């Protein structure tokens, strides 16, 4: 018989550790986005506006990110969001 599987919060915490998402802007500048908290992630659903998703995922790095990519083609934003979601294990 297989040993019983553990459903301890401590196990989930250990498995959920993610490094920050570092977006290199240029040779001298990068933006370091910390993993989002559960409270932020549960605020998102399919109807959440893109701006709010970006705010929830980037936290205090929202303004620097928008400043860096605001004049770029929208495809740049979509690609960054997809990479962040994958990096943080959020699907998408």
Structural account:
The protein has helices spanning 9-15, 38-41, 50-58, 62-69, 74-87, and strands at 21-26, 29-33. It is an alpha+beta fold and 92 residues long. It is elongated and about 60 Å long. The protein starts with 8 loop residues before the first helix and ends in a 5-residue tail after the last helix. The mean pLDDT is 92.
Helix-strand makeup class? alpha+beta
Report the mean per-residue pLDDT as an integer: 92
**Percentage of β-strand residues:** 5-15%
Helix percentage range: 40-55%
> How far do the termini sit from each other?
37 Å
Topology record:
Layout: H1 9-15, E1 21-26, E2 29-33, H2 38-41, H3 50-58, H4 62-69, H5 74-87
Antiparallel strand pairs: 1-2
List keywords for this structure.
92 residues, alpha+beta, two-stranded antiparallel ribbon, 5 helices, elongated
Summarize, please.
With 92 residues, this protein is an alpha+beta fold.
